[in-house]
Specification:
binds fe (ii) ion; mainly alpha; 327 residues; 13 helices
Length: 327
């Protein structure tokens, strides 16, 4: 195995290792925050899977005889990626917990797909096999969470009296409005950093779509008589997104960026799926239809991003001086 390729492989293994370490912490607190027995059970089950995943990844690092001090170094930098959105804020409702977890599972899925591309290039079939089997588990966990959107909404609204539903709906709308503001930032910065021209095109097109989504959400907020100060407060609380601080120094940016954007689209999908359910309960059909439509747009964007994982990874490897694959 060429040295440069082996270094990349170790780097990606280190990334997924630190992602799993963060996942372990999340899976330990999630059952308590879920306030629903089925959701709590899904998190508990995934804690056991995550423990095994962490062990498998560590065994691949051992097999490659990765230098422990170097791993520590790489992990310190990798840790930031998961922190950007997912670990930083402690979700305050079961619904937000499920949104974050759903997004996190997709970040893991992306990281393992990228790992398997690198391992394939390096001819390390054992790592390819580990990456594929863990990716499958992450996808299954994401499905369990998606099947729990109803329960998440139920648990979040349980203590809200029926006449307060309209007020709750305003909160959900203000939240997706803030998420779209972050999406605009992500896509604006992403365009400039994409590296791969087709990935850049996906970002540019979705940026335009995202602005329209935010405007449509804002129109629903106005139509419902929400004061702008309410959703501006949410914007301030959520804060800005500075991707270059996390990705800028890393030479494999295009691939990581694609994985992060893919995860972000799933944060949006989960938020709109729940908004749709709350709007239905509140009898606001127009908001329910809008949420369903936007969720579909986010799914399409996620699929377009995923289709660029391979070229983005190849672009990242080229930037590392690793040439095109033979054959
Ligand atoms: Fe995992
Ligand atoms: Fe996971
Ligand atoms: Fe989006």
């Amino acid at each position: 195995m060429a040295d440069a390729l082996k270094e990349q492989l170790i780097k990606h293994l280190t990334d997924v290792h630190s992602i799993e370490e963060q996942a372990l912490q999340q899976m330990q607190v999630a059952p308590r925050l879920a306030r629903d027995p089925v959701l709590a059970g899904a998190f508990r089950e995934h804690l056991i899977e995550t423990q095994e995943q962490e062990r498998l990844v560590r065994s691949r690092l051992d097999a490659l005889e990765a230098d422990p001090s170097k791993i520590k170094d790489l992990a310190a930098r990798a840790g930031g990626v998961g922190m950007v959105l997912f670990a930083r804020s402690q979700p305050d409702t079961p619904g937000k917990l499920v949104s974050h977890a759903y997004s996190y599972e997709h970040m893991e899925l992306a990281a393992y797909e990228l790992l398997s591309i690198v391992a394939e290039r390096a001819g390390d079939q054992d790592t390819v096999a580990v990456a594929r089997s863990i990716a499958e588990q992450e996808a299954v966990m994401a499905e369990r969470l998606a099947a729990g959107f109803d329960r998440a909404v139920e648990a979040s609204l349980r203590e809200v009296a029926r006449d307060d539903l309209g007020n709750q709906l305003g909160k959900y709308l203000a939240d997706v409005h803030a998420i779209e503001a972050q999406a605009v930032q992500l896509l604006e910065q992403g365009q400039a950093m994409a590296g791969d021209p087709d990935l850049q095109k996906v970002f540019t097109e979705h940026l335009e779509e995202t602005r329209a989504q935010q405007a449509a959400v804002q129109a629903r907020l106005h139509a419902r008589g929400e004061r702008p100060s309410r959703f501006k407060n949410v914007l301030l609380r959520v804060g800005g997104l500075n991707l270059s601080a996390f990705f800028g120094a890393q030479p494999d940016t295009p691939a990581k960026l694609a994985g992060f954007a893919f995860a972000f689209e799933h944060l949006e999908i989960a938020a709109y799926e729940q908004l749709m359910r709350v709007a239905q309960r509140a009898g606001d059909d127009e908001t329910a239809r809008l949420a369903e439509r936007i969720a579909g747009e986010e799914r399409a964007a996620a699929a377009s991003i995923r289709a660029r994982f391979e070229p983005a990874m190849q672009a990242a490897l080229r930037q590392q001086g690793i040439g095109a694959p033979a054959g």
